[in-house]
Each structure stands twice: as C-alpha cells, then as structure tokens.
Design a protein that fits this description.
This protein is mainly beta and 122 residues long. Helix content is 0%, strand content 56%. A hairpin with a 2-residue loop joins strand 2 and strand 3 (24-31).
Length: 122
Amino acid sequence: MSEIFPEMIGTTMSSVKRLDGQDGDELHFIDTKGNLYRFYHQQDCCEGVNIEDICGDLDDLVGSPILVAQGYCNHPDNDEDISSTWTFYTFRTAKGTVSVRWYGSSNGYYSESVNYEFVQAR
C-alpha cells in the first residue's frame, strides 16, 4: 500500500520532532501556521508499533517547503505465531531527505499500522 500526504506538500514546517512516549513513538510535524501532522500508533494489548530507524536529519525538514511526503507498507512472510509490518515514510525538502522506518508486530489479530492525523490550528 502506498500513501501520499498531499496536505503536507508545499508546506513549510517550523518543527519536526520524534516523541518517545509511554504509549509508543510519535512523529510530530508542526507547520508555520500551527497545524499538526501526527504519525503515531494507538497501542493495544498484544501488539507494538515503534520507530526503528530515522535516516537523515529531521532538521532538514524545517524551514523549507516539503516536496515529497509519502509512505508504504511491507508485510513480510510471517510465521504462524507472529505477524509483522514494516512501514516506511519518506519526506523531502530542498535541504535533504529523511526516511523513517516503523516496525509493528502482533499475534495477527491486532493492528500493526501507523496512524496519521492532521490537526488544524484554531
């Protein structure tokens, strides 16, 4: 599954941060108008979804318009007891490219996906 985030394209971010929380990792983009673009996972009982790796410098995504904001998932062949999902996001500005790799695993019954939420500033 490939996903593009058109509302991010052409937008200049004032802040991009990785948050390590009790309920899992989050990636927050805040644009110059105060809008929030939130990547996270709503943790449940028997699964986990976390950021495994960030390749590039998140500061390269600040102060220059976003040119690329896209993601895709990979569901490798899993054994019978464990299901897993890799989710990859690529963000690019004129200053550089950042790739974020998330890993989710469960018993196959729970979600392993990364959630995305756009919160408009008031």
